[in-house]
Design goal:
Bound molecules: magnesium ion
Number of strands: 7
Largest sheet: 5 strands, mixed
Structural class: alpha+beta
Shape: globular
CATH class: Alpha Beta
Radius of gyration: 15 Å
Helix content: 25-40%
CATH topology: 60s Ribosomal Protein L30, Chain: A
CATH superfamily: 2-C-methyl-D-erythritol 2,4-cyclodiphosphate synthase
Length: about 160
């Protein structure tokens, strides 16, 4: 079987007056992520990881933030569109492992819901979707609450032509 790995990273500024979406889940927080779409850093990192694994460029190449059709868009739509590109290239997700860096609030209570949302998009078991959270230990732009950052690695594998 043909396996490929991919990596993605995304960062967003945190500001008052925006929703905080992470992994397709709304997080209770006085601050939200600033950006053109709903600014879900975790889903954006996952998009880049799966696109990267298939050597299909990156999220900004396919869904430019200069294009008004993507203004305020639900990033689950971007992830579905990204995965469609990957599947069209003949691959499907094996597993993914991600880490979100955010000083507050604690993300642990939200992680099972994120796993559910993302596993439904990829049509895989929830144990194929790993999401971890850590802080910036009060240092730098993560630690002072100025921003959020997410990293993701994925493994994709070529789909057996008999299964298509
Ligand atoms: Mg982004």
């Amino acid at each position: 079987m043909n396996f490929r790995v991919g990596f993605g990273v995304d960062v967003h500024q945190l500001v008052e007056g925006r929703d905080l979406m992470i992994g397709g889940v709304k997080i209770e927080s006085p601050f939200g992520a600033l950006g053109h779409s709903d600014s879900d850093a975790l889903l954006h990192a996952i998009c880049d990881a799966i696109l990267g694994a298939a050597a299909l460029r990156d999220i900004g190449y396919h869904f430019p933030d200069t294009d008004n059709q993507y203004k305020g868009i639900d990033s689950k739509v971007l992830l579905k569109k990204s995965y469609d590109l990957v599947r069209s290239a003949g691959y499907q997700l094996g597993n993914m492992d991600a880490t979100v860096m955010l000083e507050a609030p604690k993300l642990s209570p939200y992680i099972p819901k994120m796993q559910q949302v993302i596993s439904e998009i990829f049509e895989v078991e929830e144990d194929c979707i790993s999401i971890k959270a850590t802080t910036g230990e009060k240092m730098g732009y993560i630690g002072n609450g100025e921003g959020i950052k997410a990293y993701c690695t994925v493994l994709i594998h070529q789909v057996d032509k008999h299964q298509i």
